[in-house]
Amino acid sequence: APVAGGPAGAAEEEEKTEFDVVLKNAGQAKIAVIKAVREITGLGLKEAKALVDEAPKPIKEKVSREEAEDAANKLKEAGAEVEIE
Q: What is the pTM of this model?
């Protein structure tokens, strides 16, 4: 029987099923980016502003590719520079 957490578990991680959405730069439209961060994360205004001010920062972590792309697109539309890792 396979052992959980063995070498097979490490190989599965390499397939990349979980992604992080990283805000690299808020760009010129900081207010729009803060609104997008609030919408994506559910954070309050103060927390979202702090996150944007501290960029580069992860906005979403360990999410599906679809969710990561959706969040990244919202941030890009707001004028942010975003990376999916």
A: 0.78
